[in-house]
Amino acid sequence: MTASTLSPAPVAPAAPQPGRRARRRQENLAGYVFLSPWLLGLLGITAIPMLISLYLSFTDYSPLIPLTEANWIGLENYRRMFTADQSYWHAVQVTVTFALVAVPLKLAAALAVALLLNRTMRGISVFRGLFYLPSLLGGSVALAIVWVSMFNRDGAFNSFLAIFGIEGLPWVNDPDWALSTLILLAVWQFGAPMVIFLAGLKQVPVELYEAASVDGASPWRKFVHITLPMLSPVIFFNLVLETINGFQGFTSAFVLSNGTGGPVDSTLMYSLNLYIAGFVDLNMGYASAMAWVFLLVIGAITVLLFNTGRFWVHYSDNEER
Amino acid sequence: MRFPFRLAALLLILAIVLYPLVWMVGTSFKSPQEIVNNIGLIPREFTPGNFADGWNKFDVNFGRFFLNSALVSLLTVAGNTISCLLAAYAFSRLRFRLRGIWFGVMIGTLLLPGHVLIIPQYILFRSLGWVGGDWPYLPLLLPQFLATEAFFVFLMVQFMRGIPRELDEAAVIDGASPYSIFRHVILPLSRPALVTTAIFSFIWTWNDFFRQLVFLSDLKDYTAPVALTLFIDSGSENAVGPMFAMSLLSLVPVFLFFVAFQRLLVEGINTSGLKG
């Protein structure tokens, strides 16, 4: 198998290093051999479906008819989405509210607990592991079921309130409160960003704190002027990741509302709305248009985050961006 | 903050964080009356019957649903580790034409929301007769065998970049081809990245709901998460105990993985920024 790479090419001494050229050709071929599953996936699972989806977004396609019989309706789906579909705007509002509230709360909880854990003491890794556990379990249907039951009329949360003589609400059935229970579920999973914060905190040079102590800085000033700037790349990383995840919430909203987005559309997350349009109402052309707007908005938010990041994310000089 | 306060704060937060899980375990052993009346964590009357009731609640029992979930998850693990390993080797070690462009495309797909592709994929797989066909899991598994989880490709690329290049170069001098370098140098040294990928793919697939909800149409093919939603449909008060019992059972494999690989999981998200 290695004969070709070893051949010293005695027949053509004038040619510059033909063995090397053969090797390069072999490497090029090998590159594509190893990449072939990924390339197939890119083409068949990602690129072609994306193009189909773009085409469908200009049609009235429904899975009840063959793809070839879908009617081209131009921008009608987009017009309807932006001007005539109230539940669409409702879903946008629910999703934005969810992301704007859940992401900062989750990151704040993650940072606060990471600061508490950022000490060398025994048992830290046990705490760290247990705080991380909800991040592993929290996205599941099983946990969403438990969460919803906990905030039911007879749930554990109301039993807890009853101890203080407060009469609770059926939180998950109340349009004003249902989304809040989902936000709490998201915040409860603060473990994953916490672990990342903790690793970031370990990288902050101790000398900075020592120097500040010598200058008589208060803990608060140290936090604001040392910890936050030094941690800003990690905060940024978590912010991007959690925001993108936040916009894609689906499972908990599906479980709470049994797939309807209720009560009164109060948990109609964007993805759930898209699922209902495509797989319940079988309006796949319309749902494809929703998917494309979603993709563009997520892309725009990512670009926006990266652009604003320049103003507040501090990278050490010796660190590559 | 002084040590006792710090510890007290941590313990309080831990209690809040673990409460839902403990409550879940307690409730799955409570009788229907106790679920409404007993606000405590521990059931007065131990009711293991919830597990038998939940197990046999639907026409297909939960053993089948768990087996289905295990089948999908394990095959996903196989697909992800193999296909992402191959792609990562190409990206991190081989020089080939357009490599930079393909790598950029791969990074681009990292941020691509899966929900955007679900409708055209559904149409494509359905037109091939794969949805609800003889191979109900093909739509769930095929993408995993084609390295579409860019997260894992990226994770392994990062890992392989850390393997000293001198090893490859020595092998090249010995006349090794790119294939034998992969087989004898990179593959054995990539074990930690493979294990991390395997564990995360198992847990994510085991917990996944959206794709399984869309692509599975026959009750007998349902995975555990899809089957659990049937309890919500049935909705009666008497179903709460069994519903909790089955929910609890469905979390056991993830919990065991957590216990066995806690260190690796925590370090895994550190090195790669993976989401748990």
TrEMBL record, chain B:
Keywords: Cell membrane, Membrane, Transmembrane, Transmembrane helix, Transport. Pfam families: BPD_transp_1 (PF00528). Its main location: membrane. It is a multi-pass membrane protein. The keyword Cell membrane applies. It comes from the Bacteria. The keyword Transmembrane applies. It is found in: Cell membrane. InterPro entries: MetI-like, MetI-like_sf. CDD domains: TM_PBP2. Residues 66-261 form the ABC transmembrane type-1 domain. The chain crosses the membrane at residues 65-89, 101-125, 137-157, 185-206, 243-266. Belongs to the binding-protein-dependent transport system permease family. This is Carbohydrate ABC transporter permease. It comes from Paractinoplanes hotanensis. The lineage of its organism: Bacteria, Bacillati, Actinomycetota, Actinomycetes, Micromonosporales.
